[in-house]
Design a protein that fits this description.
mainly alpha; Arc Repressor Mutant, subunit A; 5 helices; 2 strands; 59% helix; 6% strand
Length: 130
């Protein structure tokens, strides 16, 4: 897990950690049951206080995305249905932002759907290579 922290972004570091882990789960880089880096290891790697990592992990645990196993560390939840719903929620958020941009361009829903259809078909034609 290679997290690059932007110390000047204005986004709290613990939020950056949370978003990085959520994206890693969404993109399949972290799978159900995968172990996360230890708190100390991650803190050392990104040069932050241990409490910052703990805060991020605790929030992810409260959201149900990760679970703590005493003496073993933190793991991505094995609840596949929950992870799927979380991923769908994240994609909906991304789509909402995109839809707002299309609306600002005065594009119709039909035009947007046609763009999406063409992109979907192109992705299928090239085996998902873009």
């Amino acid at each position: 897990m290679w997290l690059k922290v932007d110390y000047h972004s204005g986004i709290p570091i613990y939020r950056q950690i949370i978003e990085f882990i959520k994206e890693a789960i969404m993109e399949g880089r972290l799978k159900p049951g995968d172990q996360l880096m230890s708190v100390r290891e991650l803190a050392r790697d990104i040069n932050v206080n241990v409490n910052t990592v703990i805060k991020a992990y605790k929030e992810l645990e409260n959201e149900g995305l990760i679970v703590a196993h005493k003496g073993l560390g933190y793991f991505v939840t094995r609840n596949g249905e929950y992870l799927k719903s979380m991923i769908v929620d994240m994609l909906k958020r991304d789509m909402k932002e995109l839809m707002e941009k299309f609306k600002k361009m005065n594009m119709s829903m039909e035009e947007v759907i046609e763009i999406m259809r063409k992109m979907w078909e192109c992705d299928e034609d090239d085996g998902g290579k873009g």
